[in-house]
Amino acid sequence: MACVQPSNEIEVDLPALRAIYRHERDRRVRPDGEGQFLEVSDRLAGFGETDPYSPPVERAPISEDIDVAILGGGFAGMMSAAHLKQEGVEDFRIIELAGDFGGTWYWNRYPGAQCDIDSYCYMPLLEETGYMPKEKYAFSPELFEHCKRIGRHFGLYDKALFGTLIRALRWDESIKRWHVETSRGDDIRARFLIMAAGSFNRPKLPGIPGIMDYKGHSFHTSRWDYAYTGGKDTNQLTGLADKRVAIIGTGATAVQAIPHLGRHAGHLYVIQRTPSAVDARNNKPTDPEWVKTLKPGWQQARRDNLHQAVRFGLPDDVQDLVCDGWTAINGALAQHVGKHMRGEISTAELEAARELEDYRYQEKLRRRVDAAVDEPELREKLKAWYRFNCKRPTFNDDYLATFNRDNVTLIDVSDDKGVERITEKGLIAAGREIKVDCIIYASGFEVTSSIRRRLGIDVVEGRNGRSLYDHWKDGFRTFYGYMADGFPNQFFTGYTQGAVAANLTLMLDHQTQHIAHIIGETIRRGARTVEATHEAVEYWQDEMREHRASNDAFFAECTPGYYNNEGGALRRSYVGEVYAPGVAAFNALLAAWRDRGDLGGLALDGVAAPAPTPSTRNDTKASANAHIPAP
Ligand code: NDP
Fold first, then answer.
1. How far is ligand 1, taken at its centre, from the CA of residue 391, in Å?
2. Domain-by-domain residue ranges, the chain?
3. 203 touches ligand 1 (CB under 6 Å)
4. Distance (Å) from CA 250 to ligand 1 centroid
5. Fold type of domain 63-202+448-529
6. pLDDT digit string (tens) for 9-38?
7. Lowest-confidence range among 186-190, 483-487, 607-611?
8. Which atom of ligand 1 is nearest to the CA of 207?
9. What is the DSSP string of 522-545?
10. Measured from the CB, is residue 115 less than 6 Å from ligand 1?
11. Residue 117 alpha carbon, nearest atom of ligand 1
């Protein structure tokens, strides 16, 4: 049962809103689409490939043979390692560009950085490590510390190669291993590879003319320069007291950082192209009395409850354990999907009900702007005119009021589809030159660009020198999302072709368990290679076609952003394909596969077990415009 009732009393004029949404979308679509962004390589590498948080440590190149190379030391990499250990596999390395574990929470240390998913669900391995988060929504330092805790608890530090960038991955058939080449001159020959680089790991920059001309200070939010701003560990950004600062972007990251910048900068210019819709945060400390009531297994139960609430809605007799902005709106929307799946309402009725719910929710958020912002003209600029989930939902209690400050100026660049130009001294935006001492890019990450750009690895070559980038040029082709034919002993985590959850760590936990199981089984069966057969990949393509959540029509109408390839033509690989029946159904499918024990669809040392047969999961077939919570 949802714990917050939808805003049924809010009147909306649907035809008028549809027209506004369409108009606002159309005036933002750029002909260059995602081509407008720059990769942080070559001359721009300093924005992403350097580490402002840890001094470089010299070390000699390594030449070694190991069982498993895990590429990435964030949650996916650490959970892979923990599950490998549970499978009895100890001979692995975790290779990571950063100077420590943490991934997202190593890099994103900007002031105010916080995970907006309930921390008791999001922070993995709480029961295993005996840790209880301090608050319902954890801030970055606590999240980073938890990553280090997992590293210590599972003895992962001895296995880590930090400060190391992967340059090339090449399968060597003669030794049945992958050569892992790195920025440190290593040649690591690994039997198995787990790709755990994350989905938001590569910063991107807006392709604003003149970006290299700027002579002031600049950095990306995921490489925050506390030496310049001051305030490391305190968010007291005293170094900015006499500085004119511009922040480009008003997405989920900027919404969290801007209240701090507003409090401390001499003057802050917020460069906004599209406003975020900002709901209340309502963070609160962990209640020790509630903690005393928890029984073993509580975390998994809570995570499952959150996923069910957000994805399909909770039945009336099941309590919403998380009870927040995510479960309220997603739960309300999901209830209609549930009714549709049970045949209680038609597709047209589903669409109508969802649209009304969605428009009312967005209208509620526009009224939050009216309540928080003093100046009428400013209020209008800060209102979001698009459907819920067209952009990442955001939650913050201080963001909107920041614009009442005298030292904060909102620069709306929607008319020009972005900042016009960057100059030596600042930027030209909304028809005026703004001289600033510092430009902060809150411009997001490579999410929908080519797979090569997203991975940031120059070469990935499987059997017969076949490039993964060619193999997947038209989108992912995998068996259950984890393996590609022609790429033996290589496993993928993250968004490919499987079930997704708004709580990313739920998805990663199941993925890495499954991968560790296959590696463990391959080793136990004495095989050197394991590979998805072509037949198995074809089987999964058919299954994905049958059960894919088809939200393309919804996103095609959305204001541009990374959810819809910047308003361009939708591609299968935008953030991966979503298995509509959801995480529970997907995991049941994989658990049944594991229980059969025949490794169906995989070839061990070239000997294939028959691929699974198509499922008959018609009850959960994707509906048009299926409800998929945002990643
Ligand atoms: P986004 O990609 O969401 O936002 C980028 C921002 O830069 C947008 O406001 C965009 O405007 C703006 N921008 C890009 N180019 C230009 C330009 N030329 N001129 C002016 N503005 C420009 O990145 P974020 O870092 O904010 O968020 C990325 C993701 O990280 C989130 O979606 C979320 O998944 C994750 N995240 C999660 C958090 C959590 O709590 N779990 C917190 C923060 C981030 P426009 O919208 O018009 O394109």
1. 9
2. 63-202+448-529
3. no
4. 6
5. FAD/NAD(P)-binding domain (3.50.50)
6. 788 899 999 999 999 999 999 999 889 999
7. 607-611
8. 18
9. HHHTT-S-EEE-HHHHHHHHHHHH
10. yes
11. 41
